[in-house]
């Protein structure tokens, strides 16, 4: 393992920002630290970088304990959310900064900066200053500057937070491709799950200073291993009286259930599909989401959200519909269980 955290604890006053944090990362992977605000993501990054010391626990990089090695000697590149570029320096000088500090010779610096300018597609902008750049360009300069001294590990703290939505999407793809090309082990912090799912090889979910789950985006999405992960990932709604739904029995261990929109299919009442496994519902609201419709449904006293493709027959607010729930996540304080609609197997009646 290239990066290892073992039993890390960190308190700020009375607040436990890291609570027995342990994980390991393989060389060359791009890892997303994902969690709500205040869950301890940045604290982990800062301890890895050497900007903060853990109260207890070990940090290993490439098999070597680095707890007592100062930040400047850890060989780590850092990209912050607010660019943190030197305002009075040109793009070229910003990128060259780390190499100047290392007292590399002029010819090497020129060659290395030019290489990074090409990699980050900043050709022609070398003599501009930060205020003459767009947000996306500034962030690419920050990225090039972090990579210039050939770090072994790259840490990115909410790298796209200050950038507008469309450019952010482009930059995500760009970052993933560029990091793959360079092959550097990288960890980025985000509270945006779309960003984590799109970019990361593996996601580490943080909550109240603890690690909730580690896995590939698909693993985390399909098999959330904790109640928090089940509720946090994806669009999800919690219901209490899930035992009243067709095909689901109340389970004495679990008080609540999570339903995701992808677990639900909606059809017109005159097109009953699986009548013994479905609920009768009514459409409360419809939102156009660009590539689909988001339906807000009422079934009895329960509110659900479902998606509907633009290709499907249009539905309107007030329409009575059949609502088929394929599966649910049941959870309590400690565990989560995926259950399928039991009536689906026995219900062969399809009326169209
Ligand atoms: N230097 C500090 N002094 C005191 N408290 C701190 C310090 N740094 C962080 N904290 C506290 O530790 C907790 C975790 O903070 P951290 O920045 O790691 O969370 P985060 O998950 O990165 O949140 P965000 O997404 O809002 O940046 C927060 O409650 C924060 O207020």
Helix-strand blueprint:
Layout: E1 3-12, E2 15-25, E3 30-34, H1 41-49, E4 56-61, E5 64-65, E6 76-79, H2 91-101, H3 106-119, H4 135-147, E7 153-157, H5 165-182, E8 185-190, H6 193-199, E9 202-207, E10 210-215, H7 217-222, H8 227-232, E11 237-239, E12 256-259, E13 264-268, E14 278-288, E15 292-299, E16 302-309, E17 320-325, E18 327-331, E19 336-340, H9 343-346
Parallel strand pairs: 3-8, 3-9, 6-7, 7-8
Antiparallel strand pairs: 1-2, 1-4, 4-5, 9-10, 11-12, 12-18, 13-17, 14-15, 14-17, 15-16, 18-19
| CATH superfamily descriptor of the largest domain | P-loop containing nucleotide triphosphate hydrolases
Uncertain stretches of 5 or more adjacent residues: none
Ligands, deduplicated: adenosine-5'-triphosphate
CATH topology of the largest domain: Rossmann fold
The mean pLDDT is 90
Total helices: the number is: 9
Main sheet summary: 6 strands, mixed
- Strand coverage percent: 25-35%
Report, as a whole number of angstroms, the end-to-end distance: 55 Å
Shape: elongated
Task: Report Rg.
Answer: 25 Å
Helical content class: 25-40%
Q: Give the total of domains.
A: 2
Q: What is the number of strand segments?
A: 19
Order of helices and strands: EEEHEEEHHHEHEHEEHHEEEEEEEEEH
Give the helix/strand class. Answer: alpha+beta
State the CATH architecture of the largest domain: 3-Layer(aba) Sandwich
List keywords for this structure.
Rossmann fold, ATP hydrolysis activity, alpha+beta, OB fold (Dihydrolipoamide Acetyltransferase, E2P), ABC_SmlMolc_Importer, about 25% helix, 9 helices, about 35% strand, 5-stranded antiparallel beta sheet, binds adenosine-5'-triphosphate, sulfate transport, 6-stranded mixed beta sheet, elongated, about 350 residues
